[in-house]
Structures are given as structure tokens and as C-alpha cells.
Sequence to fold (66 residues):
Amino acid sequence: MMDTPKEIESVEWNDQEKTWMTRKITVDEYHGFTECRYCHRPMSHNIKTNNEFRVVYVKCGCTRTQ
Fold:
């Protein structure tokens, strides 16, 4: 099991620029993750930040695009 992160580098799609954008998100509470079916590393995290529960997507460890 991995340590509870204090900050996560989130990946979001920017429709205007047609590119992936990354930004750091501070984690108030951590509630687990969903792992990639291919590389078995986290691809999304369930967190609480700014008093709001969110699913935050990150780059997984493999090179698969689909």
C-alpha cells in the first residue's frame, strides 16, 4: 500500500487547446485509488479537497493510450 499523498499532480483535458494539462492539487483527505488494468499503478485517486469529494486523474505508469 502506498503512503497517503499530500499533493497530487492532476491531468485534465483542455478542449480549447486540444492538449492534456497538469496541475497540482492539495489533498485534505485521501480515500483510495483505481489502478490501471495494464501496469497496475494508480490512474485515478478519490480525494477530498476544498471541502469537496473529487476523482482526480493522473498519468499511469504505462504507455497505453486506449
In short: Residues 28 and 49 are 5 Å apart (CA to CA). The mean pLDDT is 87.
